[in-house]
Amino acid sequence: MKSRFIAFYFFILSFEIYSFEENPLILNILVYNTHGLPEIFITDNPKLRFPIIGSKTQSYNISLLQEDYAHHAELSSGLSKNSAVVRGVLGNTLTCPFCTGSGLTSIFNLPDDWKVEVKNEAYKTCSGWFKGANDCFAYKGFQVIKISPPNYEEFYLVNTHMDAGRRDSDRASREIQLKHIVSSIEKLEGKALIVAGDLNLKSTSPKDMALLESFKKTLNLYDAFLDTEINEKWSILDYILYRPGNSISFEILNVGEDESFETHEGALSDHPALFIKFEIIKI
Predict the structure, then answer these.
(1) What is the pTM of this model?
(2) Which of these, 141, 156, 190, 273, has the minimum number of CB atoms within 10 Å of its CB?
(3) Where are the alpha helices (DSSP H) in the chain?
(4) 3-12+25-282: which CATH topology?
């Protein structure tokens, strides 16, 4: 298992979009698969798309991104100078020179008195080198993010990107990956939690939905989009799941798709830009 632990404080001189000095505490979180494969594998214009994606994260307190593989410099060019960025596992060119990292990137626009800690883990299994969705060429995994606001109990986020593909072997890998997440965070029982990202669990697949329901039941998670419809042009593969903790809960204020993630050339990715806005409530 590849693991990295990063602890840091944010020192932001000013933050104009959100005010946390007065109650209530409200957070706006973006969840977005950026479609960041190398240019040889895609037909659109990532050099145009990624600076725009970066600039749009400035409207969110936290952005949980997937597939930030090959265009991180372009993404970074659009970020706020005060944004703090933590990337997931970056891979090992010695053991696999053709492999990429996890593609996970978490971006934080938070006040300087909020503490954030990030632990990166790589999945132990994958499905497909030259078949399926070729997932074994990426060190896919997840980030466990601990957020500690002042005068509130900490809560946790998980940012993940799981195996793609529709074969039984792909689904078996996803099942193992879900169990990996559970084993990593089961000690957080009683803590408020959000699990989000590209789970590659297709909403029209009964077998995928069985995996999702089992995962939700194990961790007592709710689907933030259960009663929210997304544009029918998208396949539903991305999720925002949440649960309250013993000391704090999340009052959901809004969820949906940020439809501004487009240019004159079309959408900025082949996935929808999902968001959740919620208030942190002391219990």
Answers:
(1) 0.89
(2) 190
(3) 46-56, 72-77, 168-185, 206-219
(4) Deoxyribonuclease I; Chain A (3.60.10)
Give residue 58's identity as a one-letter amino acid code.
Answer: Q
Cβ partners under 8 Å of residue 219, min gap 6: 182, 185, 193, 195, 241, 243
Per-residue pLDDT of the chain (283 residues; tens, 9 = 90+): 444 444 444 433 334 444 444 568 999 999 999 999 887 778 789 999 999 999 999 999 999 999 999 999 999 999 999 999 999 987 655 555 455 678 999 999 999 999 999 999 999 988 754 455 455 766 799 999 999 999 999 999 999 999 998 889 999 999 999 999 999 999 999 999 999 999 999 999 999 999 999 999 999 999 999 999 999 999 999 999 999 999 999 999 999 999 999 999 999 999 999 999 999 999 9
Reduced to 3 states (helix: H, G, I; strand: E, B; else coil), residue 51 is helix
